[in-house]
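Sequence only, no structure available. Ideas?
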Amino acid sequence: MTTPQEELLPGTRRALLHRIAAAQAEGRAPSLVAAVVRGGRPVWHGARTSVDGHGPDETVQYRIGSITKTFTAVLVLRLRDEGLLDLGDPLEKHLPGTGAGEATIADLLAHTGGLAAESPAPWWERTPGSLRPELSDVLGEQPLLHPVGRRFHYSNPGYTVLGALVEKLRAAPWEEVLRREVLEPLGLDRTSGHPQAPHAGGWAVHPWADVMLPEPAEDLGRMAPAGQLWSATGDLARFAAFLARGDDRVLSAETVREMRTPAAPAEAADVVDRATYGLGLQIQHRDGRLLVGHSGSLPGFLANLTLSVEDDVAAVVLANCTSGPQLSTVAADLVRIVAEAEPRIPEPWRPLREVDASVLELAGPWYWGTHPFALRLAAGGVSLEPLSGNGRRSRFRANGDGTWTGLEGYYAGELLKAVRRPDGTLSHLDLGSFVFTRQPYDEEASVPGGVDPDGWRGIG
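Reply:
I predicted one. Tokens follow.
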């Protein structure tokens, strides 16, 4: 039997409230709202505000800045899944004449297209989008600053181009496509391109005095696919659940897993920070867990969505100030609080329904030279991992012909097969030319380089 999902414990709820209260007070945010998702559904919402009375609830809109990019990435991957484009296609194939056409769709999604970080002056976030009516106004005279595909360089114009790609292939405005293909199917009725009441106002808080200044809320025009959206914690909580599990009405679980997979070469600073980028998602390693999601900011607003797939916990944090609380840290802390206070309960172990005797024969210890490994059978295929240390390991998917393909790490895409002698007995495993034997340097197996005929010996 299974145990129904329970609400968070009182101690966990208090710890979450304390964390956002400290963030709002220490970061001097006019208001800060947060939500936590566990098991695919919202389980907590909290708010702190400088205004007397009831704090903002999960329906109040805040501007979410670059979290918009993740929504745009979902639209592009829908086009790919429908066969209308390939991620390896150069932009020129679909949008000719931009000056950035050698960048591939995947490059643009992963910020490796070599494009500038910003559009030409004046700064697009505090000026009307009408100043940049065409892609050429966004990209400028020299769109490329770096060789295509060589380095990660975050680019807002890159996502403007992806939005234009969506419009070209769908023959409809970006926001219209977004609403029809993502927002409505997922029930995100409090997410929109322009603010809808109730919504928070954006503020700049003076760095040395407890006073505030209202920030302008510009329509970003062409730059909308990079940062236009307004949303609420309730909607973003549902979006976080989608990014963890997928939804076949929008994207499959396999495709959202692809979004969460690193796709950009890490800069030296990124290696130090243990951060990288997938396809429309930021990826970082913090507090011993892998976190994916996206941050966002526009004048007057800060936003963050953070997800730990392994813990099945996500957090959303929104604030209406230009600078202040470090929301990526706050969101990661909310995930950690729930994951540590109420760790995920594993699914019950269940035996396989059936197993091929010839596959079962492969289970157990193997040696690559003198290194011991274990091959294990589980649902979906087999795994090979070292018995000690941090050596190469991988899960393998069955191909249906007695071979398996590696799914991760060094062996991703490599072929694993069992090699048998003429009499049908098992000789060894071949994994991308590596020979694994039942004994270290088994003299009865085909070990590359051969085995010394005098065998193992000590020092005389």
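Residues 396 and 407 are 6 Å apart (CA to CA).
Hope that gets you unstuck.
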